[in-house]
Amino acid sequence: MNPDIRSAIDFYERHPISCEIILARLEASRGHLDGLEPEELFPHDQDHYGGLAANDALAEHAHIGEGTRVADFCAGLGGPARYLAHRYGADVTGIELTPARVKGAQELTRRVGLQDRVRIVEGNVMQVPLADASVDVVVSQEALLHVPDKRRALAQARRILKRGGRIAFTDWVAHRPLSAADRELMWQGMAVTELYTLPAYAELVRDAGFAVASVEDLTREWGAILTQRLAMYRKLREETRAAGTPAGHDAFYESYVRFVDLVKAGHLGGGRLVGVKAE
Ligand SMILES: C[S@@+](CC[C@H](N)C(=O)[O-])C[C@H]1O[C@@H](n2cnc3c(N)ncnc32)[C@H](O)[C@@H]1O
Asked: Ligand 1: residues whose CB is within 6 Å?
């Protein structure tokens, strides 16, 4: 297995938020897990910046509506996939690399009764297990940063999209080159692979055979969100310390603190890109 892929799996196998933790929290607050509604999961299952509003932005850019066939690249615990199915009536297939997250996503989807419209499939977005021209839209949020060959993932998106189909995604971008020490910290702590500037990312989308419909810089927006996230991770760190810190958590925390500093300094940031498969 490609070592870059292995690192992403290792990172997400020990991620502080899991299906078990979400269900334990819900059980503690409501007393039981019977009759869970999708809305009850949404405060817990969105592993990207900007929560549900970020999904709405992608849905709008990609023209997602009733019956739209969507592939969600790097679907995580399936939060965005369930939201797009529940709120817009889309039919969503999530592609997710980490087996524990696939299992967790399937369990959460079953618990809220969305399994007819949401499938989470174990797979690698560099080799997507879907047929050519089989979907209307590809979405992805804050995940391609882990993918060592983004060019290949974009080519896979183009392959599975029908003509006129759209890709809409958010990802980390590097406005300035990172120092070798920061690159190593991000890699060791969060399995971050090569990052692009926003113009270079747009070029990559174009090279993959898309007409670029829009490119937005989300860095300022993310700065505020990340400060809140860091506070949440600080709290989680205290909880995990009390329960015995799992391996890798310190490296994650250290790299996250540095990541937030780099975003605030404008060296790292986020972007939302939208492309249309012209032919
Ligand atoms: C930050 S999470 C985002 C999850 C989801 N997009 C969301 O917004 O809730 C990144 C996810 O990408 C997955 N991932 C990383 N590399 C991948 C790859 N090559 N193919 C498929 N999934 C991948 C990880 O396992 C992880 O679940």
From this structure: 5, 8, 12, 46-48, 74-76, 79-80, 95-98, 101, 124-126, 141-143, 146-147
